[in-house]
Amino acid sequence: MRQFFSNKRLIVLLISIIILVALIGFSMKERSTLSKPEQFFKDAVATVQSLFYKPAKTVAGFFENLADLKNLYEENKVLKARLDEFAKLSVDYQDVKAENDELRELLDQKASLRDYQTIPASVIARSPDRWNNLLTLDKGSEDGVEVNMAVITPAGLIGKIKNVQPFSSTVQLVSDLDRTNRISVYVKGNEDIFGVINGFDAEKQALQFSNITIDSEVDEGEIVVTSGLGGIFPKNLIVGEIIEVKNDKYGLTKSALVKPAADLYDIRHVMIVKRAAAVIEDDEEEEEER
Amino acid sequence: MKRVYLPAILFLCFIIEGTIMQVIAPENFGSQLVLVPRFAMIVLILIALYVSIPLAVIYAIAAGLLHDIIYTDFIGIYMFSMAVAAYVVGQAAKVMHINAIVGLLVSFVTVIVLDFLIYGLYSLIGFIDFPIKLFLLERLLPSLILNGGFFILIFAPMKKVIKSVNE
């Protein structure tokens, strides 16, 4: 123990701290693409990870199915009742959609903020520490994935694409604590109530929805959806449900806590959303900063 | 041939941390507790105890760098923390005679050192803003139990592997 901090070791320690600071500085600056070696390692490890994650998920899914079996009869009855309702709804939907398309054609409006295509993908890994909420997906730039695309499950928005490699990509979940992780949203049914999601409350497991105008009436239980105004996400992707509303500390704006609609943990298959509406090129730099 | 055993085991543990352990993570079933697997670190500390500290530090730098690239945004945090944890705990445990119980305690200390370094460094650069009480209760404590369990599981087999590598 006497030699614990002898001269040579002290120098090594100091040099390694300098390297640490340099590396953090290098990786903290906004990078649109990762360096080639990083991409290579991510892709190579992703191949191995998919060999582990998918079988593990299949086995886990089998046991979950067994647990579900006992509810099957009840569920089936309810679903059958719903089916009639659905038939009627789908006729209505076709009707409305056709009318909408027609009207849009009249207006000569090609791409709406709502339109998007999806790329299906599977999760193959997740950061083991919960400081980083990153998922690895098995689709990469070869499949048409680009940085900043939204990622959803059928239940709602879960995050956006952070990095893309040729054969895999990394998703930053909405719960990630990174301060550049922001989403422009509004309360469904009332476009006047808008704001940004700019954080995650780890204690309550909910997203922070802030910058709501003070005189707007927000209630618990209302649904929050993306506004499409940030330039990255399409409009009307479900984010979550408001569980708490309060005034912020200066009393100038309101903020709310939003419980994510999608399960941010038990994720297997996701859809990567490709927005149809183009972003105006001049705004590109602003978008990057978001 | 035998010299690839240890890196291979290390890599396997590293992969399991991000894949199989995430499939069975308690959050998937609605729990608040967070189990952070540090399996690679447990293997590293066994290498530090039974093979040599410099080798463990070199492996720790490699494993940490890989962890940084694959699972995080910042390069350097895990690389530094894992190397420091392997070195400091390895040096401190030099004076002790290692058996299963002492080894378990050493692995607890390793995980505590590593997790505190990571928590501290991430807080320092402003990446996270997380109450320390919550960190201790919901993250560190359950993780210690998980990693302690993993240590007990691999202690005897790893000793055999290391013995055959050392020959």
- In CATH, the architecture of one domain in chain A is Beta Barrel
Shape, per Cα inertia axes of chain B = globular
- Stated plainly, the CATH topology of one domain in chain A is called Thrombin, subunit H
Rg of chain A, nearest Å: 23 Å
Distance between the first and last residues' Cα of chain B: 12 Å
CATH uppermost class of one domain in chain A: Mainly Beta
Query: Given the helix and strand composition of chain B, which structural class is it?
Result: mainly alpha
In percent terms, what proportion of residues of chain A is strand?
A: 25-35%
Strand order of the largest sheet of chain A: 1-2-5-4-3-12
Rounded to an integer, what's the Rg of chain B over CA atoms?
15 Å
Largest interface: A-B, 44 and 46 residues
Number of helices of chain B: 7
Which H/E pattern describes the elements of chain A? HHHEEEEEEEEEEEEH
Q: Characterize the largest beta sheet of chain A: strand count, sense, and whether it forms a barrel.
A: 6 strands, antiparallel, barrel
Task: Please bin the fraction of helical residues of chain B.
Answer: over 70%
Name the overall outline of chain A.
globular
Helix content of chain A: 25-40%
Would you kindly provide a written description of the structure presented here, covering whatever features stand out?
The complex is a heterodimer of chains A (290) and B (167). Chain A has a domain at 183-260: Thrombin, subunit H (Beta Barrel). Chain A is of the alpha+beta class and 290 residues long. In chain A, a hairpin with a 2-residue loop joins β6 and β7. The longest helix of chain A is centred in the first third of the chain and has 36 residues, at 72-107. Chain A is 34% helix and 30% strand. Residues 283-290 of chain A have low confidence and may be disordered. The termini of chain A are far apart. A six-stranded antiparallel β-barrel of chain A has the order 1-2-5-4-3-12. Chain A has a six-stranded antiparallel β-barrel with strand order 6-7-8-11-10-9. By secondary structure, chain B is mainly alpha-helical. Chain B has one domain. Chain B contains seven helices and no strands. In chain B, α1 packs parallel to α4 (53-71), α3 packs across α7 and α4 runs antiparallel to α5 (77-93). The longest helix of chain B has 35 residues, at 132-166. The model of chain B has no long low-confidence stretch (mean pLDDT 89).
